[in-house]
Write a structure and sequence with these properties.
homodimer, DNA-binding, mainly alpha, elongated, 9 helices, Arc Repressor Mutant, subunit A
DNA sequence: GAACGATACGGAGACTGTCTCCGTTTAGCA
DNA sequence: TGCTAAACGGAGACAGTCTCCGTATCGTTC
């Protein structure tokens, strides 16, 4: 890629992250282009669709999910609390940008989605958590990582669109957690 | 209301139901107006926003939820199966129109929403189901009807946007159901 | 360091959807 | 049969998406 093209690409991603954080994922792409100081053509050449641009933006916080998952896996406490803690982390991270939760959850399991690599990172993280708990015999094994992401992502989507606070989300996550841990 | 106005209003609702079923809730309102044989002005006079139109459309299937709930309440089987059966009914009905699940779930608990009356019917139905089960001591009592609607609505939203079939939705609902029934 | 071809730029403008304004029409009453 | 309030409808202002193509720039080659 030519140096000027790379510069423009980077700049667009940076500005888009800012604009999307301010206005949500529905923000005007022409505005993003204008703020980035490039023409609409340049933006659309680099990012043929909104989804592709979103994908580029998501890269950074997908990395944060991996990090956060490491931290949660090291948690010493009850299995249910570990699961719940990961749920809360997950919801917090995917609702960082308005509309993000719906986007990522909707794409979950879709092999054709432009953001499938991000979904894979997330479901991979989920797999590590439920894998650990399954080893300990703490959670049911008939539900896979993608399904867990759909469940928690569903809650996250509702939390995002209804603007629920952590206190309102927690009981919902508790139900999901209780549904996953094996009956004692 | 003048007779011609009433006629037009009814016709718009009827056509909108059709168009939304075909194309989802994002369909062009001008198209609805055109198909209904009225001007855009007429449509917007009757329905100042898309939400208000959606509200009018939803009336009929909210009635169906009430009906379906009656049927489920008469179900003779295990408590968990009754709950699960109601979940499936709920998901089926609110995903009848593409985008409907997200709309209704997002508005759940919002006193200002134009479709709040519909949400109240749905959470009322949920209250009847979990009320019955709570009486029998079959479900936890720290989760209210709105929360149940949010949980199941979250699953429905994911099912809708990811176009999941009943077989893919069922395990998710099972987790939620298991999280709600009291531990044995 | 000049010339040149490939690559990238940018913004005008076509297209689509939302919503309003206002001149025209019509229902329904007296 | 007239009158008036109510309702109609569609042109058009506005906003967002996305494309096309003339222009500018990069970076390579000699």
């Amino acid at each position: 890629m030519r140096a000027d093209a790379q510069r423009n690409r980077d700049r667009i991603v940076e500005v888009a992250r800012e604009v999307f954080r301010e206005q949500g994922y529905d923000a005007s792409l022409d505005l993003v282009a204008k703020r980035a100081g490039v023409g609409a053509g340049t933006l659309y050449r680099h990012f043929p669709s909104r989804e592709v641009l979103v994908d580029a933006i998501m890269q950074s916080w997908v990395d944060r999910v991996t990090e956060a998952t490491d931290k949660v896996l090291a948690f010493e406490g009850s299995d249910r609390d570990l699961l719940l803690r990961w749920f809360e982390t997950y919801v917090e991270l995917i609702t960082l940008h308005k509309g993000g939760a719906a986007k990522i959850t909707c794409a979950m399991g879709d092999e054709e989605s432009p953001i499938r690599t991000k979904c894979q990172v997330l479901s991979g993280a989920a797999a590590r958590v439920i894998g650990l708990l399954a080893e300990r015999g703490a959670v049911r094994t008939d539900v896979d990582a993608v399904q867990v992401c759909r469940l928690v992502g569903g809650v996250a989507t509702v939390a995002d669109t209804s603007e629920l606070g952590p206190d309102q989300v927690r009981p919902l996550l508790e139900v999901v957690a209780d549904g996953l841990v094996v009956r004692g």
